[in-house]
Structures are given as structure tokens and as C-alpha cells.
Amino acid sequence: MPMPMPMSRHVIALSAAVCLAAGLAAAPASAEPRPRTLGELAKKHHKYFGSATDNPEFTDAAYLKLLGSEFGQTTPGNAMKWYATEPAPGVFDFTAGDEVVAFAKAHHQKVRGHTLVWHSQLPAWLTERSWTAAELRPVLKNHIQKVARHYKGKVIHWDVVNEAFNEDGTYRESVFYKTLGPGYIADALRWAHEADPHAKLYLNDYNVDGIGPKSDAYYRLIKQLKADGVPVEGFGIQGHLALQYGFPADVKQNMQRFADLGVEVAVTELDIRMNLPATPSMLATQATWYADYVKACLEVRKCVGVTIWDYTDKYSWIPSVFPGEGAALPYDENLAPKPAYHAIRKVLGG
Ligand code: XIL
After folding, report:
1. Rounded to the nearest whole angstrom, what is the distance from the C-alpha of residue 81 to the centroid of ligand 1?
2. Are the C-beta atoms of residues 326 and 313 closer than 8 Å to each other?
3. How open is the CA angle 331-334-335, to the nearest 5 degrees?
4. Which one of 54, 117, 269, 316 would you pick to mutate in the ligand 1 pocket, going by the greatest count of ligand atoms within 8 A of its CB?
5. Predicted local confidence at residue 2, as pLDDT
6. Which residues pair with 234 in a beta bridge?
7. Residue 165, by phi and psi: left (phi above 0), alpha (psi -120 to 50) or beta?
8. Residue 309 CA: which ligand 1 atom is closest?
9. Which of 144, 248, 297, 303 is positioned for an S-S bond with 209, CB 3.0–4.6 A?
10. In DSSP terms, which residues pair with 162 in a beta bridge?
11. The pLDDT of residue 30
12. Where are the domains of the chain?
């Protein structure tokens, strides 16, 4: 008696394919491909979409889950500022910044370094005494280079100088300007470049969304820095908007004129606040503004990405700094997406 033939490989493969096809046809909705995240959608346009974060939030698991899954980039909201990184003269502490960088690495996110030179959130040891230029120069250089060296290879950008101008386009009278003169900006950029030649070096400010005296001051400064061979490579537009002040005019044209100077542009701290309580109509306007702002970036090739200044109203900085205002971010206090989230998705092609 011939032995019964074992089922041929062919038959096995065929029946597996039939089962698979049948299985797929009957697949429940839950097996549908997962919707693309904001980060993934932006990537299709060769841009990133990111969110700032802050260390106290790292104990909130639900928050971290969304931060790590939805966004392709993050910026430490406070961890890399001077008060945090050099709490005593010459004493550096990278604990908080390292925590953000480790999270970003684990979730394949880019990191923007924020910020090396700023008039605000300085340590008391720096603000509570007077300085001569000869004293302050080496302190500034050492700070910039120690921090930039520590994060070398870990950040794509540095906001080297933050908020250098007043609204009328004159230089802000920070301790750095008053002590060292306007040349502190070029020096800071050169020192940062020495420490991390691969990070793109940015100047960053608010109320520079459209064309006006403050953005004009940056336009002139960046043009001059470029002419002098100073390593400036990006203009950061914070984008802290408020419904009551109206949507800025010429956002796209403003981005484009910086791009035409030969620098890239990034939207670095976008949020859109409103007077509380938020109404459905205010949230609808907010959604349109988010979409219009993101669209402007999509339409300028050298606009490299958009970062929102955290993603949930639960952790927004707005209520503490602008009393009576808030609801500024695309997710509400319970981490549920708001109309703004859906509007951003749509404009990104989701
Ligand atoms: C804000 C932080 O979000 C707050 O937590 C902190 O108390 C104050 O600073 N422009 C900037 C950011 O460049 O560094 C600021 O961040 C918001 C305005």
C-alpha cells in the first residue's frame, strides 16, 4: 500500500493564503491601519511636527504616551535654559535636559536646543551683580560652549540668542547687550558653532510672525551676519498668538523673505490663546488659525517644521503668565483632541 501523500507545500501555501484573504475580508474595524500621526503626516512634506515638553510632566504616563507617539520633534520648555544648566558659576547640571533628550531618542524624535542666551530665566548669580565686559565675555563663552558641547550631536538646532529685539526693532537692553554691545550676538553664534558645528544656529523671537519693525530688525541683522560670514542658519518664529489680537498678516511672505536671505525658518513655539471661558466659536477660530499657520510653513520650502509650545492645555504656560487666558493648545486638559487638532491633521493631509 502506498503511504498517503503528505500535503504538498503548494497546498499548504494555498490554503494559508485563502485563510489569510478570508481573515482580512472579515477583519474588524480595529484591524484597520492606524491613522497617521501629526509627526508622520508632516514628514510626508519633509517637515517635522513637534511639541515642547517640560520635566515635571514626565510623571504623567498618559501625557508621555501621546508626546512620544504623535510628535516627530520635541523642545525642552525649560530644561536647557541658563538657570537650569549653570545654576552656580561654572557648575553645570544637564540632568533635566538629558531626561528630555533620552525620551526623544527612545521615541525617534528630533530635539531643538532652547536656549543659550536669553535675558530671562537667568540664574541669580548672574543677575544679582554688575559685570564689566572683560568679566562677562568669558562667562558667556563658557556657558555657550559647555552646553552646546554637551548636547553636540543630540540637537538639530540651537536657539542661540532668544528675544534680542524690542517691538520697535531696537535692541533689547539685556545684560548681554548693555555690557557687551550688539556684537554679543555674532560672538554667541561663532562660539556655538565652534562647540557644535553641525547644529543649525537660530535667532528666535515672538511677534515676528508678519512683516513689521521687529521682524525687519531680524531681517537686517541676519543679512548683515551672513555678509560677515557669521554662522547663522535659521530664524525661529515663536508664534505665540492670541485670538483677541487678530491673525498676523503676511506670515508666509515673512517666512519667504528670510528663506530668500539663505536661512531656514522654523515655527518654534506655536500656541493660540484666548480669553477664558473658551466658546465653541472661539475654538473654531483657533482651529482655522492653527491650520493657516501650518499651511504657511508647508508653502515655504525652507520652513523646516512646526513646534507647538506643549500639546495639551493641561500643561500650557499661558494661564500662569497671562491670567484669564488659556485653551491655547490643540488638546484639552483631558488630553482629548480639540477642533485645532483636527484642523492641523487636515491641512497636513491626514
Ligand atoms: C516659558 C515656559 O514654557 C514656562 O514654563 C516658563 O515659566 C517661562 O518660559 N518664549 C520662550 C520660552 O522662548 O522659553 C518661554 O517658555 C515662552 C516664551
Report:
1. 10
2. yes
3. 40
4. 269
5. 39
6. 202, 264
7. beta
8. 3
9. 248
10. 204
11. 61
12. 34-348
DSSP letter for each residue of 240-274: EEEGGG-PPTTHHHHHHHHHHHT-EEEEEEEEEEE
Give kind and range of the element (H or E) at residue 280. helix 280-298
Q: Find residue 157's DSSP bridge partners.
A: 112, 200
CB 213 within 8 A of CB 169: yes
Instruction: Read off the pLDDT of each residue in 1-9 and give the average, rounded to a whole number.
Output: 40
85 lines ligand 1 (CB under 6 A): no
Ligand 1 touching residue 162 (CB < 6 A): yes
- Confidence tier at 18 by pLDDT (50, 70, 90): very low
Q: How far is the CA of 76 from the centre of ligand 1 (A)?
A: 10
Q: Cβ atoms within 10 A of the Cβ of 317, count? A: 19
pTM: 0.92
Ligand 1 mean position, distance from CA 122 (Å): 12
Tell me, using a 6 A CB cutoff, whether residue 109 lines ligand 1: no
Q: 247 C-alpha to center of ligand 1: Å? A: 21
pLDDT score at 8: 41
Q: What is the pLDDT of residues 51-94, one digit of tens each?
A: 999 999 999 999 999 999 999 999 999 999 999 999 999 999 99
Please count the CA atoms within 13 angstroms of the CA of 264 that sit on its side-chain side.
Answer: 20
Does the beta carbon of 316 sit less than 6 angstroms from any atom of ligand 1? Answer: no
Whether 269 is catalytic? yes
Structural domain 34-348, CATH architecture: Alpha-Beta Barrel (3.20)
Q: How many CB atoms lie within 10 A of CB 313?
A: 23
Q: From the centroid of its chain, how far is CA 116?
A: 15
Is the CB of 77 within 6 Å of ligand 1?
yes
- Given 233, 269, 325, 333, the catalytic residue: 269
